[in-house]
Amino acid sequence: MLASIALLGALDVWALQRQRLQEEELLFVGNQYRLAIQRYYRIGRVLPMSVDDLLEDKRFPVPLHHLRRAYPDPMTGKNDWLFLRYGDRIFGIYSGSTAAPVKHANFPRRYADFVDAKTYGDWQFFYRPPGSRIRTLNGSATPSFPEAAPNVPNLPSQSGRPGSLTSASPFAQSGGF
Fold first, then answer.
1. How far is CA 15 from CA 10, 22, 90, 95, 166, in A?
2. Which of 42, 105, 107, 129 is most exposed, with the fewest beta carbons within 10 Å of its own?
3. Largest Cα–Cα distance of the chain, in whole Å?
4. Average pLDDT value for the chain
5. Residue 93, SS3?
6. Which residues of 42-60 are buried (b: 16+ CB within 10 A; e: fewer)?
């Protein structure tokens, strides 16, 4: 019986360590997508329409590769990212996982809002194009992009709270920043 209790304790420690490693991978992969969107925008002054655009940017005679590969979501193990959209363009990604994060401190400054995250879906990785303004108000933000933009509902802050995206909005969730 004591051996069973010790084994259960070891499994709990192993599971916690595994979750921490997945969190570190989520931070790395999310940042890779954010940087790829940033590079894509800086080269052509337009946001990508899909991850395929990041993998192979065919806007030029010699295709560019802003993202090495389509990384799976470390929290789900699948390539099932949710996207933050501006019209038909993506400006960010986030995980569809509803699990609670273990990490609540020591984030890079860019992701300081992750401290208050309730789920991994609150860890949203996105790029703000130059000339855009994101006004944070009660954990939400409103963008103003250089290209013609309709009046849009609240966008998530860097952490994505309060999660005001709905499938009815132009920022419908379908994979993300």
1. 9, 11, 33, 19, 33
2. 105
3. 68
4. 79
5. strand
6. eeeeebbeebebbbebeee
DSSP 97-166: --PPPS--S---GGGGGGGG-SSGGG-EEE---TT---EEETTEEE---SS------PEE-TT-TT----
Residue for token pair 């052509």? 44
pLDDT at 76 over 90: yes
User: Which two tokens mark 112?
Assistant: 């300081």
Please, which residues bridge with residue 107 across strands? Answer: none
**pLDDT > 60? residue 2:** yes
Encoded tokens for 146: 């250089």
Rg (CA), the chain: 18
Question: How confident is the model at residue 148, as a pLDDT?
Answer: 34
Contacts of 32 (CB under 8 A, 6+ apart): 67, 68, 71
| CA distance to 5, 48, 78, per residue, from 41 (Å) | 54, 7, 26
